[in-house]
From TrEMBL:
One of its GO terms (molecular function) is cysteine-type exopeptidase activity. This is Secernin-2. The gene is Scrn2. Residues 362-389 form a coiled coil. It holds the Pfam family Peptidase_C69.
Length: 404
């Protein structure tokens, strides 16, 4: 498979605040998932499990070897695939992923999607650092690749990840099976569809530098700057737009430094002027998530998810891992089994209605709001017209001129 037009729109923004940037003793994670505007994102709870040794696990496109035990997870995911755009596990690990394009070519075949890597890491990791190593190991063994949208025209990319737990956060950026990671033990950080790890590398693929040198991207002299070495020389339009969102996100985090709360993160995710809350052409923010991860292990982590598009017009609903917690049917999309267009080769030749009940209700409410706004706008225009006619009549009376 090949990637689509280099200027195809695609974006996401992830944020994290680690004390002392947070207003409370907690790590705060946030993400907007920007996807094709008619794509439905569902919220799925998957309980912890034990698995038979040697068993296999079907991901979106390929099978992988299953592990003996998996953690319970809550996932916000495009309803047609196995993985997730963002989510958390019962131990307080949160991950969000983003598309990225580098000098390393995008693979042509189907492998693990970045969203599959995210879910696998949540199911198999007890800390953010362990999740970095889980993803690195899966990349080494299975690679990443395959179309990332439900469309006959393939759209492929590599991935960056923001990973957080109760004590710290990590940024993991990939180029094919190669990767670099940066540890964040304090302060605020964001990522936005571009490589952002420079010389401050905490861990890396053992062949990262030798590969760059062999390709002629790095001389082998001086400091190694991952973003500078692996970023495309000529950035496509989508990545130029990401730079502006990245700067805006940095500025907003800096403005609230020391006072970042869940409400502050929700406000950032709702910011339309910066483009962080996206509604542009064929893409928009289809789901959002904010998580509060207290440093005190006796306090529960709280995860807020919208399950509906546009966080500025959605409610963040809380979720806590507790004994007896179960799936909410209102945010679960219908399934189509072997008849699902993702399962029939060639893939995505037909479309199915994946809307869950909350999504339908949200659409209906937005329709009423838009009708009311249209009626209010027409009323304002009528008022302005009458006011203008009145002013013209008054002017005629004062000047003795007849108004037409």
């Amino acid at each position: 498979m090949a990637s689509s037009s280099p200027d195809a729109p695609c974006s996401c923004d992830c944020f994290v605040s680690v004390p002392p940037a947070s207003a409370i003793p907690a790590v705060i994670f946030a993400k907007n998932s920007d996807r094709p505007r008619d794509e439905v994102q569902e919220v799925v709870f998957i309980p912890a499990g034990t698995h038979v040794p040697g068993s296999r696990l079907q991901c979106t496109y390929i099978e992988v070897e299953q592990v003996g035990k998996t953690h319970a997870v809550i996932l916000s995911r495009p309803s047609w695939l196995w993985g997730a755009e963002m989510g958390a596990n019962e131990l307080g690990v949160c991950i969000g992923n983003e598309a990225v394009w580098t000098k390393e070519p995008v693979g042509q075949g189907e492998a693990l999607l970045g969203m599959d890597l995210l879910r696998l890491a949540l199911e198999r990791s007890s800390t953010a650092q362990e999740a970095v190593h889980v993803i690195a190991g899966l990349l080494d063994r299975y690679g990443q690749g395959g179309s990332c949208r439900e469309d006959p025209e393939p759209f492929c990319y590599h991935n960056t990840f923001l990973l957080a737990d109760r004590t710290e956060a990590w940024v993991l950026e990939t180029a094919g099976s190669l990767w670099a990671a940066q540890r964040i033990q304090g302060g605020a950080r964001n990522i936005s569809n571009q490589l952002s790890i420079g010389t401050d590398i905490s861990a890396e693929h053992p062949e990262l530098r030798s590969h760059a040198k062999a390709q002629g991207w790095w001389t082998g002299q001086g400091l190694f700057d991952f973003a500078e070495v692996f970023s495309l020389t000529q950035q496509p339009v989508r990545m130029e737009a990401a730079k502006a969102r990245f700067r805006a996100g940095c500025e907003m985090l800096q403005r609230h430094q020391g006072n970042i709360t869940a409400e502050v993160m929700m406000g950032i995710l709702r910011d339309k002027e910066s483009g962080i809350c996206m509604d542009s052409g064929g893409f928009r923010t289809t789901a959002s998530m904010v998580s509060v991860l207290p440093q005190d292990p006796t306090k529960p982590c709280v995860h807020f998810l919208t399950a509906t598009p546009d966080p500025s017009r959605s409610v963040f609903k809380p979720f806590i891992f507790e004994v007896g917690v179960s799936q909410s049917p209102q945010v679960l999309s219908p399934t189509f089994g072997a008849q699902d267009p993702v399962r029939i080769l060639p893939r995505f030749q037909t479309r199915v209605d994946r809307r869950h009940s909350l999504y339908r209700g949200h659409q209906a409410a937005l329709g009423l709001m838009e009708d009311e706004q249209e009626q209010a706008q027409q009323l304002r225009k009528k008022q302005q017209r009458l006011e203008q006619e009145g002013l013209e009549a008054l002017r005629g009376l004062l000047t003795g001129e007849q108004t037409p």
